[in-house]
Amino acid sequence: MDVQFITSVAVITPDPSVSRRLYVDALGLALTAEGDGYLHSEDIDGCKSFGVWPLTQAAQACFGTPDWPVERPVPQASVEFEVADAETVQVAADELKEKGFTLLHDARTEPWGQTVARLQSSEGAIIGISYAPSMH
Q1: What span, in angstroms and rounded, lies between the C-alpha atoms of 81 and 21?
Q2: What's the CATH number for 5-135?
């Protein structure tokens, strides 16, 4: 697997309004608010994309439901690693499976154009293997 860079880092929040108080109001990060509650910036030095991802959206992205499965640890962070192109995402996902990791889902293309496969690490973080065309 040839990881190019870290695509994004996001904290996962059960309460977006409380998290907004820290990241926007207290830290003063200029985060853009999407209509669905996702906060993000692609303009913080040292990070391609930083986000505050509502847990309901993380659950929807991984499992197709707004509820995180009770049998899984509730994630508190997400890190996505960028590969060279969209086709390489599934190749990398297959490599992870061959090494004994269980994916939350295989490669798929999200509505905003990013192709991503995800797993949950032993620490509980959501780990993505990603190709985001906007970052190339």
Answers
A1: 28
A2: 3.10.180.10
Burial (CB count within 10 angstroms: exposed 0-12, middle 13-18, buried 19+), residue 89: buried
Q: How far apart are CA 90 and CA 72, in angstroms?
A: 23
Domain coordinates in residue numbering, the chain: 5-135
**pLDDT by residue, tens only, the chain of 136 residues:** 899 999 999 999 988 888 989 899 988 999 999 988 899 999 998 889 999 999 999 999 999 999 999 999 999 999 999 999 999 999 999 999 999 999 999 999 999 999 999 999 988 999 999 999 998 8
Closest by alpha carbon to 27, among 6, 8, 41?
A: 41
Q: How many CA within 13 A on the CB side of residue 15?
A: 5
Nearest to 109 by CA among 81, 133, 74: 133
Tokens linked to 15: 């309460």
